[in-house]
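Agenda item 2: zinc ion complex prediction
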Amino acid sequence: MNKKSAKRTRVPPAPASWSSPSKNPSTGRKGDDDEEVVEKNIWMDPDAQSVDCGICFMPYESEVFMCSNGHAACGKCCLRINRKCWCCDQSIGDIRCRPVENILAEMNTVCKFSKYGCAEVVKYVEKRRHEETCPRAPYGCPIDACSYVGLDLHAHLLDDHDDTVNFLRATRVTLRKGDPFRVLVQKRNPDATGLGSVFLLLNGGGVLAGRSLSLVCLGPRPEGNGEISYKMEVRGCQPGELSLAATAPCIRELEGFEAKKFLFVPDADWGPFGSVAVSIRIG
Ligand SMILES: [Zn+2]
Ligand SMILES: [Zn+2]
Ligand SMILES: [Zn+2]
Ligand SMILES: [Zn+2]
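Presented output:
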């Protein structure tokens, strides 16, 4: 086993919330080279939530802030709560909690998606960023009342919701004004070993006198965090009148998502039956 793979697949040995793996528990001596690589770091139990931010329950990144009474919050939460402590109303966001930052910076842990096959060992302060883009993170089924969460959402949609999905190659998708989204999938390719892509054509509110249309990808995330560009056009209007060229963000759940770029379709364009025909081209 080479050095890299040995390190990546290593699992923290102790059930305590943190411990040092620098010594072999059976001999009490230092282990091989791999042990040398990680001995400077402390292992954190991946389920040890007591060290996460008490507001968003996410792992801290490199900066930890505290109010004058010692209540802590991550940088993103300080902004979210308008720099007023969630516990005592004192100002928070100026004072760093450096001893805690130093301890957290030394800690290693594993990705929370290890049960889905991610073998990455990550620094605790990089855990949040890793998990946001982890290639083994599962996707939840967007269809109402379906509880599927897994890695192959594409196969699940084709197997269990084939009456609901639209194929991406179809020239156009009919979208009713009241549909919050339509599911778009690639056709199943019997030779393909990779996972098929899933997209949602979102039909958002939040704009006056019309709807906001955009596309998001529900995985798999493209290699190297590449972007998925697309062109969308609403048919039936003047050619090119309602069209958009944008990139589809990769998201894992719809909740809380707001499209930054969208195609505005005014109320007047939804036709006598309250629907439009939308064509989408990926790439
Ligand atoms: Zn937070
Ligand atoms: Zn406080
Ligand atoms: Zn991961
Ligand atoms: Zn489902």
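Discussion summary: The first strand starts at residue 18 and ends at 19.
Owner for follow-up: CH.
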